[in-house]
Amino acid sequence: MTALWEMRPQGVYAQLAAVAVGLTVIVLAACPIPGAKTRPGVYLGAALGEPLRDFFVRYRGVAALILALICVYRLSDFVLNIMNPFYADLGYTKTEIAEVRKVFGVVMTVLGVGVGGWAVAQLGLMRSLVIGAFAGPLSNLVFAWLALQGADLPALFIAIGVDNVASGFSGTCLIAYMSSLTSAGFTATQYALFSSLYALPGKLIASQSGRIVESSAAAAEAGGTFAPLMGLFSRLPPEAYAAGAAKSGVTPAALGSGYVVFFLYSALIGAAAIVLAFIVAARQPKPAETAAP
After folding, report:
1. Are the beta carbons of 143 and 262 closer than 8 angstroms?
2. What pLDDT, on the 0 to 100 scale, is given for residue 154?
3. 112 with 166: CB under 8 angstroms?
4. pTM of the complete model
5. Containing domain of residue 190, as a range?
6. Per-residue pLDDT reduced to its tens digit, 118-139
7. Which of 51, 88, 110, 148 is most buried as measured by Cβ atoms within 10 A of its Cβ?
């Protein structure tokens, strides 16, 4: 059982199934006996049912869209769980990666958070939320550019700087938005629900990130759809992607093509957040309309 739980990527599905089973047990325990309420049902209704009812009543007609937006808003960021192997395959040393990500990257994230807070205050919450929906996917395109540069340190600074500023900005806007959705009586429960939802889809989809890179590289190597991308890597130094390509059984140019395809894919899935952000912004009820009856 432990082996299944820790297996990658299948283990995440086993964990999800276990969560579903546990949730089913809780629901069954909370179901009312005919003619009487059970104690678990009363507790669950007060802790979860009432906060959910309050949210759906206040945002009737748009509540499902809001929850969908929260689920996909940071999707393009969550799938980037293969960055350390990517940097290593490009030829950066562990010291270079650590210094740029953990020192410069942290500074850029703080800068992004500050810009996000300023935008919310000056431009308004919904406008900032829409801008943040664009920031995440577009910043991923910088990594597609980085994939073509080899182990160029200034390029690494640029890519991580842009991505961390964008991530800090969009994260701040999302947190501010989720906070605005809560009501005074259920703040903790509703915010806990929102913050759980925004991470769940990304964690599930991110389990396939490495497989997408490998399958795209194999397709390019075999002369498939992505084969034309291999020509973009003809001028890279021979050490770029060499170690990773040897492990994957493809040429360095094919592996580089796989990474480019993955970063384009990670930007493309962010389009759902952009569309939903526009729809929710257009249909978002005014504060007076969201007051609980």
Report:
1. no
2. 94
3. yes
4. 0.82
5. 61-290
6. 999 999 999 999 999 999 899 9
7. 51
